[in-house]
Amino acid sequence: MAQHQVKFGNGLPVALTTVDKIVNWGRSNSLWALTYGLACCGIEMMASGASRYDFDRFGTIFRASPRQAEVMVIAGTLTKKHAEFIRRLYDQMAEPKWVISMGSCANTGGMFNTYSIVQGADRVIPVDLYLPGCAPRPETLQYAVMMLQKKIRREPANRNRNIPQKRFI
Ligand code: SF4
Fold first, then answer.
1. Ligand 1 atom at minimum distance from 134 CA
2. Ligand 1 nearest atom to the CA of residue 103, by list position
3. CA of 88 to the centre of ligand 1 (A)
């Protein structure tokens, strides 16, 4: 039978850290994502959550309610008709919250420089990370989540950011 023995030497082991680090560690490893598939990029986002890429490994679970989500993934073409709703959902998410803009359409309007398309999701809500591509592959979204985790671990735990006013054009 295997026997395990822990020797503490001159006393119990002590781990020193800060509250910020503990809070951010918890936050960065439990990023529940609000699904926001607006067009073809949404298919790649869905693939990220499926078995091959398995976002659950990162503690990132897709949710259908803004009240249960910390990160909004905007995947696809954002129309001006829809801008009001994206802002409303963003406002319903509790702080702290983050936004990933996935694909050229969400970043800049993409090829659709037309009267009906918002030329970048950051005209409506603040964006933390921009993913280039048409469409970015699930690996890119995975990498973005890992970058967001790094960013969160560097932030102060009581972060308070200025959210810009509504601007739909
Ligand atoms: S960036 Fe490309 S793939 Fe993504 S929504 Fe726009 S056209 Fe579709």
1. 2
2. 1
3. 23
- At 157, the pLDDT band (50, 70, 90 cuts) reads confident
How many angstroms separate the alpha carbon of residue 42 from the centre of ligand 1?
A: 9
Core vs surface per residue 100-122: b (16+ CB within 10 A) or e: bbbbbbbbbbbebeeeebbbbbb
- pLDDT tens digits, residue range 42-79? 999 999 988 898 888 888 899 989 999 999 999 999 99
Question: Which residues contact ligand 1 via a Cβ below 6 A?
Answer: 39-41, 76-77, 103-105, 110, 134-135
pLDDT of residue 54: 87
Nearest CA to ligand 1 atom 5: 76
Ligand 1 centre to CA of 122 (Å) is: 17
Please tell me the pTM assigned to this model.
0.85
Beta strands 62-63 and 129-131: pairing type? unpaired
